[in-house]
Write the structure tokens for this entry.
Amino acid sequence: MKALTPLRKYRFRVFLAPALKAVECICELVIPFIVRAIIDEGLNPNGTHAGDAGFVLVLCAAVFGLSVFGFACTMVTQYVASSVSTRFSEELRMNIYAHIGELSPYQLEEYGKSKALNLMTSSSSSLQSGVQMFMRLLVRAPFLVVGSIIAAFIVNVYAGWVVLGALALCALVIGIVVKVTPKRYTSLMNELDAISRLGDDLITGSRVVRAFNKQEDAQREFEDESENYRGRALRLSRINAFINPLTFGFVNLAVILVLYLGSFAYENTLISVGSIVALVSFLTQSLNALIQFTRLVTSFSKALADKKRIDGFLAIEPSIVDGPLQEEPLIEPGEDLFSLKDASVSFGGENYALDRVNLSISRGSRVGIIGGTGSGKSTLLSLLCRFLDPTSGVVEYRGHDMRESRLENFRGSIALVSQKPQFFQGTIRENLSMGQVYSDEAIDEALRDALAYEFVHGKEGGLDAIVEEGGTNYSGGQKQRLLIARALLSQREVLILDDATSALDYKSDMLVRRNISRREGLTTVLVSQRATSVKDCDRIYVLDQGRIVGEGKHEELLKDCPIYAEIYEAQVKTR
């Protein structure tokens, strides 16, 4: 997949628009010759059709007809270019969005979320503009310039050399700008990525920034990056600003030389009045074409830099890919649903986030995973959800290597409640159903089990109450209960709760867990730092520094696992 891949289906229209522009340019180049004939042959007393009103009217009608025909070609070209570029941009954004979903969370973090967001916004818009300019102006500008030079030589050889010299100087100026700007645009976009990253960091970490009184430092860092961006943008703008005055100057100098040449040679009839008018028209057309070409160069420079960025992003191979298995084998309750065998995870360093972990989760069981901060709980969950694959060892699902499963089938059986609440702008109903259709009764049942029924229906609008982006208009406990309700509503086979009740009080935590345990056939994985949250599980695994240091039931671990006993006693005493 490349940035321009969506254009393939529009290839006919992509080349139809420049062809129509070529027809329009031919009309524009023919008109000055007709005007010259009107002046020299029809209006000049010494012309061959002097005083012939019919001759003049026919040629005027021809000028009008060519103008209308050229205008029609322009309108069709504009419509086709706008339509194709808009559809191309839409599909490009969809491709980028889909690729973001294909990458693992770790790959996306490594690339940069703000950078990926810029690809969907400014970079895609830049490519859209580039495609539109390509279809509208790529043929027009060179065609008019070359055609004007040839036409000038046809009118008068000396004037042709003047036109050629002026346009050659203009082309030199534009060529220098084309040589310099693309790399600078790439650097400029990198500065924009840095600004977006800082802005995102400030928004998502605003509480931390305020808590540590770092507002001034964060603002100063943002101002420094913004100043760097402004400086680069100004330098680039100054380079582009040289194009218009220099090209205008060269072309207007050529006009003066043509007029001087015409006045100098008029008595020898080397250049007639009609020829001078035609030559000035050719120069004016060329100047307008070159001005448009400078816009084309600027747009292409940006589009080329952004195309490379998008191509680089789309070239990232997803580390997590589908396996060949079309259907998952059926297993009986009590058989192993998940099984980790000497599974280790390393992120490139010498230390392992998980080191030779062995555990099993049987179908229909309730398994608890507990450990301190940095013990490897989140990494273990990433293995179970296949957000990453083990560096060594194997993770089995339903008796086979998890990498053999199709992601759609595998993840379609798991409901994950993350420790980071994810909400979208909309209503409570929309955030719970996630595009699926559920009855109000099913939604209410999930809300009751998650202890969210009362506060949801106590709000104005009930299920149709507004949810701000990120759920900012709800408390931490309310958001966690809504997320649990969303997971229960999906009625999937496996429920994974990643510290999903940390914002609830102990009683509410107990009631939610009790309601979940009543659901038949549900395999539940509870990850928590609270020993009280996992103590009723069928099996508990204790993690410490990436290794399993204890496993068993609550009573067994109190006797045999000092780390678990210490956690439990410390938490019970502080209640």
The two ends are 56 Å apart (CA to CA).
